Amino acid sequence: MHSLPKSIYLSIYLSIYLSIYLSIYLSIYLSIYLSIYLSIYLSIYLSIYPIYLSIYLSIYLSIYLSIYLSIYLSIYLSIYLSIYLSNYLSIYLSIYLIIYLSIYLSIYLSIYLSIYLSIYLSIYLSIYLSIYLSIYLSIYLSIYLSIYLSIYLSIYLSIYLSI
Protein backbone atom coordinates (compact mmCIF):
# COMPACT_ATOMS: atom_id res chain seq x y z
CA MET A 1 0.00 0.00 0.00
CA HIS A 2 2.83 2.34 0.82
CA SER A 3 4.67 1.70 -2.45
CA LEU A 4 1.75 2.81 -4.57
CA PRO A 5 1.66 6.43 -3.38
CA LYS A 6 5.45 6.69 -3.73
CA SER A 7 5.34 5.51 -7.32
CA ILE A 8 2.52 7.90 -8.11
CA TYR A 9 4.38 10.70 -6.38
CA LEU A 10 7.58 9.82 -8.18
CA SER A 11 5.87 9.58 -11.55
CA ILE A 12 4.17 12.94 -11.10
CA TYR A 13 7.38 14.56 -9.91
CA LEU A 14 9.48 13.10 -12.72
CA SER A 15 6.95 13.86 -15.41
CA ILE A 16 6.66 17.49 -14.30
CA TYR A 17 10.41 17.89 -13.88
CA LEU A 18 11.29 16.23 -17.17
CA SER A 19 8.60 17.99 -19.14
CA ILE A 20 9.71 21.39 -17.83
CA TYR A 21 13.41 20.63 -18.21
CA LEU A 22 13.12 19.11 -21.67
CA SER A 23 10.76 21.73 -22.97
CA ILE A 24 13.08 24.53 -21.85
CA TYR A 25 16.22 22.75 -22.99
CA LEU A 26 14.83 21.67 -26.34
CA SER A 27 13.21 24.98 -27.10
CA ILE A 28 16.46 26.85 -26.42
CA TYR A 29 18.63 24.29 -28.17
CA LEU A 30 16.37 23.97 -31.19
CA SER A 31 15.81 27.67 -31.58
CA ILE A 32 19.56 28.33 -31.51
CA TYR A 33 20.40 25.36 -33.69
CA LEU A 34 17.66 26.04 -36.22
CA SER A 35 18.34 29.72 -36.46
CA ILE A 36 22.05 29.11 -37.08
CA TYR A 37 21.48 26.17 -39.40
CA LEU A 38 18.72 27.85 -41.37
CA SER A 39 20.54 31.12 -41.74
CA ILE A 40 23.65 29.36 -43.05
CA TYR A 41 21.76 26.89 -45.22
CA LEU A 42 19.36 29.44 -46.65
CA SER A 43 22.02 32.01 -47.33
CA ILE A 44 24.01 29.44 -49.30
CA TYR A 45 21.03 27.88 -51.04
CA LEU A 46 19.30 31.14 -51.84
CA SER A 47 22.42 32.74 -53.17
CA ILE A 48 22.82 29.90 -55.67
CA TYR A 49 19.17 29.35 -56.59
CA PRO A 50 18.39 32.87 -57.88
CA ILE A 51 21.42 32.73 -60.16
CA TYR A 52 20.11 29.50 -61.63
CA LEU A 53 16.61 30.94 -61.85
CA SER A 54 17.78 34.15 -63.45
CA ILE A 55 19.83 32.30 -66.05
CA TYR A 56 16.93 29.99 -66.80
CA LEU A 57 14.42 32.84 -67.04
CA SER A 58 16.68 35.03 -69.10
CA ILE A 59 17.32 32.27 -71.60
CA TYR A 60 13.71 31.15 -71.66
CA LEU A 61 12.27 34.64 -71.94
CA SER A 62 14.78 35.82 -74.47
CA ILE A 63 14.09 32.85 -76.72
CA TYR A 64 10.35 32.89 -76.16
CA LEU A 65 9.91 36.62 -76.52
CA SER A 66 12.22 36.97 -79.46
CA ILE A 67 10.43 34.22 -81.35
CA TYR A 68 6.95 35.23 -80.26
CA LEU A 69 7.37 38.94 -80.83
CA SER A 70 9.22 38.57 -84.07
CA ILE A 71 6.55 36.27 -85.48
CA TYR A 72 3.70 38.34 -84.10
CA LEU A 73 5.12 41.66 -85.26
CA SER A 74 6.16 40.35 -88.62
CA ILE A 75 2.69 38.95 -89.28
CA TYR A 76 0.98 42.03 -87.94
CA LEU A 77 3.22 44.45 -89.77
CA SER A 78 3.19 42.50 -92.98
CA ILE A 79 -0.61 42.48 -92.99
CA TYR A 80 -0.80 46.11 -91.97
CA LEU A 81 1.83 47.26 -94.40
CA SER A 82 0.54 45.19 -97.25
CA ILE A 83 -2.80 46.85 -96.87
CA TYR A 84 -1.45 50.38 -96.68
CA LEU A 85 1.76 50.16 -98.62
CA SER A 86 3.06 48.26 -101.55
CA ASN A 87 3.90 44.59 -101.44
CA TYR A 88 7.60 45.15 -101.83
CA LEU A 89 7.85 47.42 -98.83
CA SER A 90 5.82 45.14 -96.59
CA ILE A 91 7.94 42.08 -97.40
CA TYR A 92 11.15 44.00 -96.91
CA LEU A 93 10.06 45.48 -93.60
CA SER A 94 8.66 42.24 -92.27
CA ILE A 95 11.92 40.40 -92.98
CA TYR A 96 13.93 43.26 -91.54
CA LEU A 97 11.79 43.43 -88.42
CA ILE A 98 11.97 39.69 -87.87
CA ILE A 99 15.74 39.75 -87.93
CA TYR A 100 16.15 42.98 -86.00
CA LEU A 101 13.63 42.24 -83.29
CA SER A 102 14.75 38.70 -82.72
CA ILE A 103 18.38 39.76 -82.31
CA TYR A 104 17.68 42.89 -80.30
CA LEU A 105 15.13 41.35 -77.98
CA SER A 106 17.11 38.22 -77.34
CA ILE A 107 20.27 40.16 -76.45
CA TYR A 108 18.57 42.88 -74.46
CA LEU A 109 16.24 40.62 -72.52
CA SER A 110 18.85 38.02 -71.74
CA ILE A 111 21.29 40.61 -70.38
CA TYR A 112 18.71 42.64 -68.51
CA LEU A 113 16.85 39.72 -67.00
CA SER A 114 19.95 37.80 -66.00
CA ILE A 115 21.46 40.79 -64.21
CA TYR A 116 18.27 42.05 -62.63
CA LEU A 117 16.92 38.69 -61.53
CA SER A 118 20.20 37.39 -60.19
CA ILE A 119 20.81 40.48 -58.07
CA TYR A 120 17.26 41.03 -56.91
CA LEU A 121 16.34 37.45 -56.18
CA SER A 122 19.58 36.54 -54.48
CA ILE A 123 19.48 39.51 -52.13
CA TYR A 124 15.77 39.59 -51.43
CA LEU A 125 15.12 35.89 -51.07
CA SER A 126 18.20 35.11 -49.03
CA ILE A 127 17.54 37.86 -46.52
CA TYR A 128 13.78 37.46 -46.29
CA LEU A 129 13.60 33.70 -46.17
CA SER A 130 16.50 33.20 -43.80
CA ILE A 131 15.08 35.67 -41.29
CA TYR A 132 11.50 34.53 -41.66
CA LEU A 133 12.17 30.82 -41.51
CA SER A 134 14.63 30.99 -38.65
CA ILE A 135 12.23 33.05 -36.52
CA TYR A 136 9.15 31.08 -37.49
CA LEU A 137 10.67 27.66 -37.03
CA SER A 138 12.40 28.47 -33.78
CA ILE A 139 9.18 29.84 -32.26
CA TYR A 140 6.96 27.14 -33.69
CA LEU A 141 9.20 24.25 -32.77
CA SER A 142 9.94 25.49 -29.30
CA ILE A 143 6.24 25.91 -28.51
CA TYR A 144 5.18 22.71 -30.20
CA LEU A 145 7.92 20.58 -28.70
CA SER A 146 7.50 21.94 -25.21
CA ILE A 147 3.74 21.26 -25.23
CA TYR A 148 4.09 17.89 -26.91
CA LEU A 149 6.91 16.69 -24.69
CA SER A 150 5.31 17.83 -21.48
CA ILE A 151 2.04 16.04 -22.29
CA TYR A 152 3.75 12.95 -23.63
CA LEU A 153 6.22 12.64 -20.78
CA SER A 154 3.67 13.21 -18.08
CA ILE A 155 1.36 10.53 -19.51
CA TYR A 156 4.17 8.11 -20.24
CA LEU A 157 5.90 8.49 -16.90
CA SER A 158 2.72 8.30 -14.89
CA ILE A 159 1.76 5.06 -16.63
CA TYR A 160 5.27 3.62 -16.55
CA LEU A 161 6.00 4.44 -12.94
CA SER A 162 2.62 3.37 -11.65
CA ILE A 163 3.10 -0.14 -13.01
UniProtKB/TrEMBL annotation:
Segments traversing the membrane: 7-26, 32-52, 59-83, 89-108, 115-135, 141-161
Species classification: Eukaryota, Metazoa, Spiralia, Lophotrochozoa, Mollusca
Swiss-Prot/TrEMBL keywords: Membrane, Transmembrane, Transmembrane helix
Superkingdom of the source species: Eukaryota
Keyword Transmembrane in record: yes
This protein's record includes keyword Oxidoreductase: no
Protein name listed in UniProt: Uncharacterized protein
Organism: Dreissena polymorpha
PANTHER family assigned: G-PROTEIN COUPLED RECEPTORS FAMILY 1 PROFILE DOMAIN-CONTAINING PROTEIN, SPORE COAT PROTEIN SP85
Signal peptide annotation: none
